[in-house]
Write a structure and sequence with these properties.
The protein has helices spanning 46-61, 102-106, 118-129, 191-195, 197-204, 208-211, 216-236, 253-265, 275-281, 291-305, and strands at 2-5, 15-20, 24-32, 35-42, 68-73, 113-117, 137-143, 147-153, 156-157, 240-244, 282-283. The longest helix is centred in the last third of the chain and has 21 residues, at 216-236. It is an alpha/beta fold.
Length: 306
């Protein structure tokens, strides 16, 4: 459990931002992401994590009025405010978390609550303030414990009846990939089952960053992320693809993804058929590892300003 702080102006509106991930919750109270007090809590059981969350919020709020609460959560999570499942985590591989309700946990603070996926939160942050700033269509993808994606169009999150589940995109196997099936409990050979951090470690016994760029696992990882990127380019037509998450910190990975993506497109998009065009299109996030937290603040402030 870690805590960081910065100046808060009590004359300005007070917001709560929560980035809820599969391994940690980051909760922040302040005027915005630059002026806030932030706590990091391990994601353990629902009771333990919720207790630490509420304890911190009670300490920091202490009778003050909260203008709004923004939650960017791992999923699947209900995002329809008119549904009884709003803010409720659905069927998840995270043991014990299916059915967890953010609205139930946070109701004592009597503030509007806005809930979306953690990836959508990060996408919003990067589109407005980071790697996608100035672009109309920004796709953010996180590659870590899971794989997820969020699309922001003209500064707003693009959802349907639910948030995107990009991690369960089905991909063709690499011709050298002759091993066991992927590790997603639902689809096995989907993007998450083949390219998430735990899937890589389950297959090779090491994290991707420990394998080295000459290892078959590195080649397969770059290919699967390039296949994903090619599908995104052809379906969503983004101006920028931002690849975040712990796996993307592997040295040399983003460069190889660009190379493989260009090869897979095979000249179909002539405007992207150059090293410079790929470097402009596919980038790392500017605000990692707090993109999701910034996005949670954006969700909260948007609800007051709209």
């Amino acid at each position: 459990m870690t805590l960081s702080s910065s100046n808060i102006d009590e004359a300005k509106p007070l917001y709560v931002a929560i980035e809820a991930g599969g391994t940690k919750f980051v909760v922040s109270v302040g005027n915005d992401w630059r002026n806030s007090v932030t706590l990091t809590i391990a994601t353990t059981t629902t009771d333990e994590t919720a207790a630490e969350l509420i304890k911190f919020l009670r300490q920091q709020i202490a009778g003050k009025r909260v203008a709004a609460i923004g939650v960017a959560s791992f999923g699947p999570v209900g995002i329809d405010p008119l549904s009884s499942s709003y803010g409720v985590i659905g069927a998840t591989p995270k043991p014990g978390w299916s059915g967890f309700s953010y609205r139930d946990v946070l109701k004592e603070f009597s503030a509007p609550i806005v809930i979306d996926s953690d990836v959508n939160g990060a996408a919003l942050a990067e589109a407005r303030h980071g790697a996608g700033k100035g672009c109309r269509r920004v796709m953010y993808v996180t590659v870590g414990t899971g794989v997820g994606g969020g699309l922001v169009v003209d500064g707003s999150i693009s959802n349907g009846s639910s948030h995107p589940e990009l991690g369960h995109m089905l991909l063709p196997r690499h011709k050298k990939d002759l091993g066991d099936a992927g590790y997603c409990p639902y689809h096995r050979d989907c993007l998450e089952g083949l390219a998430s951090g735990p899937s890589v470690k389950a297959r090779w016994g090491l994290d991707l960053s420990e394998l080295g760029s000459d290892h078959l696992g590195f080649e397969l990882q770059a290919y699967y992320l390039a296949a994903m990127s090619s599908n995104i380019i052809l379906q969503s037509v983004p101006d920028r693809i931002v690849l975040g998450g712990g796996v993307m910190q592997t040295q040399g990975l983003i460069e190889q993804v660009r190379i493989e993506t260009r090869a897979l497109l095979n000249g179909y998009r002539p405007d992207l058929d150059s090293e410079a065009a790929m470097a402009d299109l596919i980038q790392l996030p500017h605000h990692a590892p707090i993109s999701g937290l910034i996005g949670a603040f954006e969700l909260a402030t948007d609800s007051v300003c709209s």
